[in-house]
Each structure stands twice: as structure tokens, then as C-alpha cells.
User: Fold this.
Amino acid sequence: MFNTRRTFLKGAVSLAGAAALPGIVKAADAQVINYGGSAWLGHYPAYIGIKSGLFAAKGLDVKWQSFGTSSARMSAMLSGGIDVACTGIVSALALMARGSKHFSIVGVPEDFGRVEGLFVRSGITSIQGLKGKKIGVTFASSSHMLVLDLLASAGLSPDRDVSLLNVPAPELPAAFQSNQIDAAAAWTPQFNRIRSMPDIKLLADDTGFSLYKQYGVTPGPDVLVMRRDFAGKNADAARKFLQAYFEACTMLRDKPDQAAKYLTELTNLTLQDQIATIKDATWYDAAQQKALLTTPGKYVDGLQKLAEMLVTHKQIDKAPAVRDWTNVNYL
Amino acid sequence: MVLNKQQGRHPGFLVISCISVLVFLLIWEAACRFELVDQIFLPSPSAVLERCASMFREGTLMGHVLASTRRVMIGFLVATLLAIPLGIVLGTSRVARAVFDPILSFLRPLPSMSWIPLSLLWFGISETQKYSIVFMGTFAPALLYVIDATRNIDPLLIRAARNLGANRWQVMREVILPGSLPQIISGFKVILGLSWTCVISAELVAAKEGLGFLIMNGKEFFQTDAVVLGMVMISVTVLITDIVLRKIENKVLAWQR
Assistant:
């Protein structure tokens, strides 16, 4: 019996080892990529890529790291903690303005311009009507840029004519409801919450931004950035990552119902709300990337103008040459 | 050589301290100039000075300093003005201590940042919200300092005053308050430093000026020179207020010297 048990144990261990071996080999072979994300919609493609196995199918082991803000995410990229991330362009431009050559812009996941905008109480009918009013906006965000641009286009000074209050995005609906502010600039999901309030109307969304009509650039578009050192040493992995990433973007655009199922765990939205949020944004696929990021090109020119606008509004000290940071070699 | 009587320090030490600071700044500047350190991670002293000069010229720097100082002073003063009488009562009455001790024990370990969500609901995005954060972060520690100072009064002095016919109010005013004041004031100097950490928390949310805002906004735009400038200005302001407090202490407690 002793012999039988020993034989049985040997056999079981061998079988378990044989079963686990392909997995172990696969995990050992897989190229690890650290991705900086959050529940914001700009990170949906990466999350879907992880959950649906799109990255794994390319031999990539993409590890998800969560960050509260774009600046925190970019700081992690500077220190080498993450290799790839989606970020609001304002944060990337600020870092570029400081001369950081640590990263490149390698993709544009989406355009969320129709789910970001300026809400006012129903008595206010124009931007000029905001004179003397309190506007709640999250400083250093795309909404902040939108407000500064709208005020400038109406000839209003953000320092003298209105009172701009720095309100964190999650607090904006409550600040509106409790009459602490007369207007608020917000992006989804706060955008959707404010839109559903009574006696509140949308005065302008990102399509009212001065650079939108000419360049198709919203106040703070999302961009996909990659650490240069990582991409330089792992060009093949960088290419595979982008292939899988834009397959996820295609799924978001063409099969939102299927994509939504992977995302509810990340966002805690109901399936119905999740599908609606996906549909609110315009998702770009791989074929569209070169048109967006090649220089000279309309979109990059728009980003350059945005950088100059940030200087005009004293958000950054100098405008970086955006083309020096775009890279389409891995597409 | 003559000793500096007030500070009790040899003047030679002041020279050594100045040289030490200068050498430190020179090494820091050289490390940045020779690119041993990336300026995004640590800006050079000259870059910080440049940022300081440009913000001073624009008139924004003093605005940040004054906004934070105002918030600290109001929050701190309200906390201390309430803490002194309440602390004396709690320090002298066992019953009052039994009533309030559990509540104090609950409040004392709470960091000022933990009050931000509630203060936003109670006071909205107003200045009162900022004052309340400073108040909540400093009140419990200030109260404990006063209680402790009151309880350290020699019971013989209190008994002697009572034997001489002093009533409860007179004992408090003539014996307990002057007796505990030196310890209260030295405790409040510590609390003032603490209230500066609170104001930074307060300015993380819904502020558009103040040194906390300067630091956080600098962080958002990777303007590390502005971040370091904000930190330096906090230290300088705390040092100045500490000197002012020491002067007040010397005047108020002249009898103690």
C-alpha cells in the first residue's frame, strides 16, 4: 500500500506539473508591461485588453496600476514605475514644457468632447451672462481650459469678471445643488449627473472650444503615452501592445455591448449606463492613428496650438514642440 | 568671545551655520547645473529663486502667503480661544473630564485631512471650510495641552489661595491661569506648526490661492520649482510667526524671566 501511495503521489505530481508547465512557460515568456490606469473612459481599451485576453494573445502580461490623477500617473512614468498610460494631454504638455524626454505620444484612444461641457442655471443664456457669477471648475483640467477659452472668446477676464472656484470633479454636482456655484464645467460621469438636474442647461460642450472646429482638438484630449526607454528596448512588445490596444478600441466602437461587459467591474456602472458611456465617446482605431499623429498634420498642429494656449492662460511657462514627442513607429 | 545672551549662542556658531547653509545650497546648485540631478525631480536653488522673483513681481506670491497665514491664524485663534477656558475647566473638574474624555480621545487622533469630506458638506467650498479644517486639526491637541498644563499646577498653591479666601473664579484667574500659561504658550507654539500642516490639507480642495494650492498646482503642472518655493515659504512663514510668538511670550510672561 505504501508503494501504491508513493506511486500515486508521484503520478499526481507529474500530472500537475505537466498541466501547469505550459502556463508557467507562457507566464515566464510573456513580456511584462506596467500600465497606469483609472476608471476614466480613456483607460477602457487597456482594461478590455487585459480582461478579454487581447494582450495575453500577443504574449503580453499587462499589469494594471491605478492612479487618481494624470499628474500622479505621469510622475510614475517619470520614475519608471509604469511603461504605458493614457493621460489627459494637459498633464503631458506640462511635463513636455519642463523638457522631459521620458515618454512619447503613441496613440489617441478617443474623443470625449461631447461629454464635457459648461452647465449654467437656466436664467443664464450666454457666456456674457456669466459676468459676476461663480463658476466651479477643477483647476488644471481640460474643463478649466474650456472655461478659460470660452471666457476669452466672450471678452471676459477670469480674474475680474467672474469668480472661478477650484472644485474637485466629484464635488461639482453637490456644489451646484447647494447653490454654491452658478455654473460648472465637468466631464463624464459628473457631466451626466449635472445634466439630469432640473433647471440646469448645457451652455457649451467641447465642440465649442476654439480649436475644435479648425483642428478637431478638444481642451484636453486623452493620449496614449509610452516610456521611451521601455519602447526603445522592447520595440516588438510596444508594437504588439498597440495592435491589441486598438483592437479593443475597435470593439468599443463596433461592439459596445460586448465591451461593456468587461468594464462594469472597473467602473461600477450598470450595464446600461456603461453602454451609454461607451457610446458617448468616439473611439479611434489603428487605421486612424497615423492620420492623427503624423506631422505635419491637423491634429498635432491643434495640440501645438493648445500648448500655446496653455501658455497664454498662464498654465505652463513655455510651449513645447509637440511633434518632438509624437511617435508613430510602433503602429 | 562674548556670548549672545538671548540665544545663549556663541556668535561664531552663527557664522558656521551660515557657511553650512551656503555650502549646502552650492552643492545643490552644482548638482543641478552639472545635470547630476534632473531638474524635473529637483529644481536648482537658482530656479526656485527665479520663480520666487517672477511671482513676487506679478504680486501672486504674497497673495498665497497672506491667504494661508489668514487661514492659519483664524483657525488657530478660534481653536485656542475655545481650548483655554474649556481646558482649564476639564483640568480642574473630574466630572467634566469624565464627560468629555471619551469624546476627546475619539477626536484627538483624527488627521485634519479626514475632516475634508464632512467640512465640504457642512460649509461648502467657502473660506469657512478652510478655517474649519485648521480648527478641527488643532482644537483637540490644544485642549490637551491646556488640560495638561492646568493639572500640573501645584495643588498646594490652589489650597493656599482657597485658605486665603479666594473663590473658584479667583483661583482660576489668579492661580491656575498664570501658573499654566508658560506651558500653554510653549504648547501653542507646537500647535501653530501643526496648524500649518492642516492648512495645506485645507487648500488641497476647492482653493485658488494659498501655499497649499501653490504646491498642489505646481505638482499638477510639474512645476517643481513652484513646489519647492511653496515649501520654503511655509518654513519661512512659520519661522517668522515663531519669532513673533516668542516676542509675545517674553512680554506676556515677563515675570517668569
Summary: The interface with chain A takes residues 39-41, 120-121, 124-126, 205-208, 213, 217, 219-224 of chain B (CB under 8 Å). The CA atoms of residues 165 and 202 of chain B lie 49 Å apart. DSSP finds ten helices and no strands in chain B.
